[in-house]
Each structure stands twice: as structure tokens, then as C-alpha cells.
Write a structure and sequence with these properties.
alpha+beta; transmembrane helix; elongated; membrane; nine-stranded antiparallel β-sheet; 9 strands; Orphan protein; transmembrane
């Protein structure tokens, strides 16, 4: 086969490109089935929380402090913490890192136990988290990206103090 120097260069370049594409996709097939769950932050890193709303109350930032207000008329607050406790609750959410669940989990998507909604500085839409129970386990669904996290009862009580479910 008589090819010029330019022709052989083109053959080498295209064969290397094909080999690169082949090897790039091959590593996904070899180790793709052994995906282990990893700890992921619940809220974006370095997020600045403006408000945290539950079904019955809203915790909002006032300067450097926090205050809570009832969202339902004629219904008392189920959890009314001090300014320090409100700040600690927001810090628990900001520092929470939970195991993401990759496999399909079984819970009724129409019956969340509780809802937490965050308004973050610089974010156009609120971040909504739904708490579910299924298969004897608690799950936290982030509505925007559909990420599902596994929780135990102790973490549920930390994140949702106004609606503390009992162990069943």
C-alpha cells in the first residue's frame, strides 16, 4: 500500500481518535455496575438561607438573627425555638450530608410526611424537600433534581423538629 507521508499521518490520527473513543466508553462498562452510594450535601455548598418554611411555620432571616411565624391562622406553632435554636436548625440543614439512594425506592409519592422549602440567596426558585417513609426507612426527596436521600429517625428529628414522627 503506497501512501504519502500526509496520508499515513491521517491514518494514525484517525486510528488514535477511534481508540480514544473506544477506551473512553469502555471504562464505564467495566465498573458501571458497582456504583456505591456516596454522601452528598443536601443544600448547595456555601448557600445562604433566607427562609426555611415548613407546613405550619416559617423561619426567616432578619439581619443576622432568625424569627419564626405561624403560617396557619388560629393554629399555634408546634415548635417554637429560641433565636439560637432557629439558627442551629438552619445550620443542621446546611451541613447535612446524606447518603443518596440510586436504586428505586418504594414510597407513596402522594403522601409526604412533611415538607421543607428553602429560599436561597441568588436562586430564582425555592428548593423543596419532601419527607417520605417506605419499607421501614425514611427518605428525603429533593423536588428540583429528584435526588433521593436515605435518613434514619434521629436525622429526621433534627431536620423536621415541628413534625417529629414516632418509630413504628
Amino acid at each position: 500500500m503506497q501512501l504519502s507521508r500526509k496520508g499515513w499521518n491521517n491514518v494514525i490520527i484517525f486510528s488514535m481518535l477511534i481508540m480514544i473513543f473506544f477506551l473512553n466508553g469502555w471504562h464505564k462498562n467495566i465498573g458501571g455496575n458497582n456504583i456505591e452510594p456516596v454522601l452528598q450535601p443536601v443544600l448547595p455548598i456555601q448557600s445562604f438561607v433566607l427562609t426555611l418554611s415548613f407546613v405550619d411555620q416559617k423561619i426567616e432571616r432578619i439581619g443576622t438573627s432568625w424569627r419564626t411565624t405561624a403560617l396557619q391562622i388560629d393554629v399555634p406553632l408546634t415548635w417554637q425555638g429560641t433565636e439560637q435554636q432557629l439558627g442551629e436548625l438552619v445550620n443542621v440543614w446546611q451541613s447535612a450530608q446524606l447518603m443518596s439512594v440510586h436504586e428505586s425506592v418504594v414510597f407513596n409519592p402522594n403522601a409526604p410526611l412533611s415538607v421543607a422549602t428553602f429560599e436561597l440567596a441568588g436562586e430564582p426558585l425555592p428548593w423543596v424537600y419532601l419527607l417520605y417513609k417506605g419499607d421501614g426507612q425514611y427518605y428525603l426527596l429533593e423536588k428540583n433534581s429528584q435526588r433521593v436521600f436515605a435518613l434514619d429517625l434521629a436525622v429526621v428529628k433534627q431536620l423536621f423538629p415541628s413534625s417529629t414522627p414516632s418509630e413504628q
